[in-house]
Amino acid sequence: MNDRHLSLLATLALVAACGGEPTPPDDTPTVASVTVSPASPSVKVGASQQMSVVAKDQNGGSMTVSVQWVSSDNTVATITTTGLVTAVATGTSAITATAGGVAGSQILTVVPDECAQAVLVALDPGQYQTYSASECLLLPSGSSHYYRIAITRPSENVSPSDVVDATLTTTRIGTLQNLTAPPAPQAASLADLGVLDGARFLENRAIKARTAQFQMDMLEREVRERGPGPDGLVPDRRPLGLRLMANPPSRLSINAQLSCSGTFTPATLVNFNDDLAIYQDSTERVTRPISASATQEMLDYYTSYVKQMVSDYWGAVTDIDGNGRIVITTAPTLGDSVAATVFTGDLRTSGTCAASNLAEIIYFNADLILDMDGASPDWLALSTIAHEIKHLVSIRHRFAAGTGLPPAWIEEGTAEISATMSSRIAWAATGGPAVGSAITGDDLIATLCATDPCAFTKELYAVVDNLANAIAMLSTQPNSLVTNPTGANEFHSIYSSGWHFHRFIADAFGSAATPFADAPLFRQLTDSTTALGTAGLAQVTGRSFGQLFEDMVVAMSLHNTPAPQPTRAFTTYDWITATGIFAAPAVLDPPGFYPWPVTVNTPTGSTDEQLWMPFASTTFKGKIGPSGMRFHDFQSDGTGTGLQVEITMGGSSSVIVTRIR
Q: What CATH code would you report for 229-402?
């Protein structure tokens, strides 16, 4: 027997002695290496890169394995479970793939997505520049550079559906360092503000919006059926000289159906003075009588605070029935959705409008008058008198000129100027700030919270009402000056947009800081010899609508900031503190301050709002209506080259950059 056979026998004997079979070598594949590709990738901010991985076993063979992806710095780059990287900010991040306990990595570098030709924004504090939305801008870095960017659409299109997408993308150019927050706006103490609940003003906004639509629909119908010309207008029968006024009749037959084909029904005299006679529909009075005390409030308010102001600001009210009084009557026809109105047919002869009342009449929803009674009165009825009488004067002047009324935002906005001017006159007469001074939040709180709890006074009601509505309109998007755009907040209102715009016009072009100095400007705007609509604004101010809109946006951007104030500025309201008086509801207490940049951020664990500059690259998306505006605030930390800004928006648009500091 040879040696090989002896060796085999010895092995078998050994195996038999151990009681088992020999263990074969383990050939199961295991992950030995993970390679990530591409190698050393470089990606522009905002772009994406698909990463891939190759895993090999101990024998060098490729394997199909489950991979877990991780980015070491998600502020620079994020990665999905499938390996898709998105570049967030300039910098580096290790992209790691792990399979079977084995990891592989690549260092990904995120570089700025720089424009081929960026326009350098070179501004000193207080300066501004307007750019096309298609231009790529570079805000230069500086230790104190603070910019406000307003995306605007200076369009007069009043279609609510004219809403476009607006996207602002920023890219930080240069080295990223720690950033600092800019200081709070330069303003009076905010410590005592944010105490009021403005819910009732938002409730009133809904009825005012329906009132505006009702009134404009009625006017359009009248113009369509009878024309706006002077033919058929009742002449003014104002008596000459002094006369002893007779008491008004205890009952009148009034057509309160607001139609030239309506019928006359009896109305009962409730109260009167030398200026107004207040009636109530006789049938309605049986079940829902308005009180003598509420109507006395209306008489006193009109005589003390409205009568002379209307004459100064809009022109004299006609007296076509020759009785020396304006008639106020309740009108059940208005239902519960319309606050008050005037009927243009009342200014026409019966030959032109068969059921004309041939008198100056304001039709009221009885609920507004009834709401003045009780422990917590609502004083909307008082300022509504000033609002509707402005319409009465406007209609007369415009029909005499042979035109219709201006667009609703102009007519309702100026009517709210009338309402707030009566309120300011009343407030000044009862201890408030002088007419023309800049109202602060502290002024408002001093009056509203003179008692505990705080209460809305009748003198101040219209001012607070308009502040509430302006907050809701300006701090939400999409917003618009000329219409209530589709998708807007339910409290967006052309009452407030028109009021805010015309308040600017009066302050900037009417020298309103001097008491009543703005009256001639408004009287000229309403005069029958002035062109209609925005053409009239251009005629009175010497600037086109687009220029006026830009002027207002700049005034908003620089308002109450450390920068030099613009030549055309707001002077009669400190908007930052005046709009800071509300604590609820949320829409009246938005984050940040007027004009409410959408770049406001509330840090975790902090109740203090601050403006911020996004890390390296951020995209802000939103919608904007015609003649709408979106503000964005950015502050440099003084490092790097600056901040690149790109804007994408459909339609006619412009970007106004203002340097605040």
A: 3.30.2010.30
Residue 57: strand pairing partners: 31
- Start-end ranges of CATH 3.30.2010.30 in the chain? 229-402
Among 451, 450, 448, 469, residue whose Cα is nearest residue 459: 448
**Cα distance between residue 230 and residue 179, in whole Å:** 65
260-296 pLDDT, tens digit each: 999 999 999 999 999 999 999 999 999 999 999 999 9
d(CA 214, CA 345): 15
Confidence band of 611 (pLDDT split at 50, 70, 90)? very low
Over the stretch 294-311, which tens digit does the pLDDT of each residue have? 999 999 999 999 999 999
pLDDT value for 349: 93
The angle that helices 519-526 and 408-429 make with each other, rounded to 10 degrees, is 150
- Reference 46, options 109, 89, 83; nearest CA is 89
pTM over 0.90: no
Cα separation, 463 vs 72, in Å, equals: 55
Closest CA to 443 of 198, 156, 457: 457
pLDDT at 191 over 90: no
The CATH number assigned to the domain with range 31-111 reads 2.60.40.1080
User: Is cis: bond before 453, omega within 30 of 0?
Assistant: yes
Q: Has residue 362 got a pLDDT over 80? A: yes
Higher pLDDT, 402 or 457: 457
79 Cβ contact partners less than 8 Å away, ≥ 6 residues apart: 51, 69, 70, 71, 85, 86, 95
What's the chain's average pLDDT?
87
- Asked whether 264 and 251 are in contact (CB, 8 A), the reply is no
The residues of the chain that CATH labels 2.60.40.1080 are 31-111
Whole-number Å distance between alpha carbons of 483 and 158: 5
Q: Is the dihedral of CA 223, 228, 232, 235 positive or negative?
A: positive
Is residue 182 predicted with pLDDT exceeding 50?
Answer: no
Q: How many helices (H) and strands (E) does the chain have?
A: 15, 29
Residue 587 is classified by DSSP as: G
Residue pair 503/555 in contact by the 8 Å Cβ criterion: no
* Cα dihedral across residues 468, 474, 478, 483: positive or negative: positive
